[in-house]
Amino acid sequence: MEDIRSFTYQELVNLFGEKGHREFRVRQLFKWLYEKLSYNFDLMTDLSKDFRKFLTQNYQINSLMVEDVQTSKDGTKKFLFRTEDHKFIESVFMPIDGRFTICISSQVGCPMDCQFCCTGSKGFERNLKTWEIVDQLSQVILHTSIKPSNIVFMGMGEPLLNYENVIKAVHILRNPYGYAYSAKKITLSTVGIVDGIIRLGQDTDIKLAVSLNATTNEQRDKIMPVNKKYPLDSLIKALENYPLKKDGEITIEYVMIRDFNDSFEDADRLTNMLKKVQAKINLIIFNQWEGCLFKSPDYEHVLRFQKRLREAGFLVFIRDSKGADISAACGQLRGKKLVSAVG
Question: Sign of dihedral through CA atoms 304, 155, 69, 293?
């Protein structure tokens, strides 16, 4: 049987309607699943016995297993989940300026093999199902008693390569009878899957972030194999044409690596490249990890790089590295315990 949370609101309206169940039953069910976070049809007491019997006979509600929770000195929590087929994924719960953000995964591992990313070095195993994506949020809420104010698809995996399940999860996250998040509270981050970016802009108005990390094709080819299929000119063109609201913007993520992509020439090329893109820039200081030869730039140098971009008229931030002491920072989601658990 399929997990009931693999279906969007409209899909359930259609499926239940064929069996003679009215739409208000879907509203009731969604509130139990995503507001009350119930995992048992029998406890959904305002549903009729016949409807609960129908649900029990045709669907199930599964659960990710919380294998481990690590807490950083900055309050960040990293959750290690075990799936039903004994795979491991991670989510990160971060306190930021009095609010909380959850970074969720879309795949087990990642197929993109970005050379600066520890997550990608683990390899790729499979896509996550829709219910496995949304259950990360449910489990974190149950564990922390806090509903995050923001959701970012920046965990393990490339979300645009699991498009169908991710977009269904987005619909569930946004449904007013579900988790009820507004579009501006959800961000999807991609390494630059151009076809997926175009499709995303047609299907939803959530926020888009793009991991750019280089200013020439030669440079990007060395660290991001995706650039061979989607080179910078095609990626930038897609961003220039991406549908945005009047006050909307695309977040450009730029991981700064010492003596590789952190020169003033890089800053100037980045400025020229993005001149027609409605964008803000997040500078991310490379998070060093064992086995990688890249190094982090000095913070003072990052400040000078930021100043150069700001002088060109861009809104530029230096992203705080949350949870680095528990390998929960950007690009580190593989986890020490995960490695030992698999081994």
Answer: negative
**Bridge-based pairing state of the strands 77-82 and 107-109:** unpaired
Q: Which residue, among 213, 196, 198, has the nearest Cα to 273 in the 3D structure?
A: 213
Residue 302 phi/psi, 5° resolution?
Answer: -60, -40
Highest mean pLDDT, choosing among 115-119, 176-180, 292-296: 176-180
Annotated catalytic residues are 90, 330
HEC profile for the chain?
CEEHHHCCHHHHHHHHHHCCCCHHHHHHHHHHHHHCCCCCHHHCCCCCHHHHHHHHHHEECCCCEEEEEEECCCCCEEEEEECCCCCEEEEEEEEECCEEEEECCCEEECCCCCCCCHHHHCCEEEECCHHHHHHHHHHHHHHHCCCCCEEEECCCCCHHHHHHHHHHHHHHHHCCCCCCCCHHHEEEEECCCHHHHHHHHHHCCCEEEEECCCCCHHHHHHHCHHHHCCCHHHHHHHHHCCCCCCCCCEEEEEEECCCCCCCHHHHHHHHHHCCCCCEEEEEEECCCCCCCCCCCCCHHHHHHHHHHHHHCCCEEEECCCCCHHHCCCCCCCCCHHHHHHHC
End-to-end CA distance of the chain: 31
Rounded Cα distance between 132 and 3, Å, is: 9
Look at phi and psi of residue 331 and say left if phi exceeds 0, alpha if psi is from -120 to 50, else beta: left
**Model pLDDT for residues 322-333, shown as the tens digit of each residue:** 655 655 555 555
Chain-centre distance of CA 106, in angstroms? 7
Beta bridge partners of 253: 211, 282
| pLDDT score for 326 | 59
Q: What is the pLDDT of residues 136-158, one digit of tens each?
A: 999 999 999 999 999 999 999 99
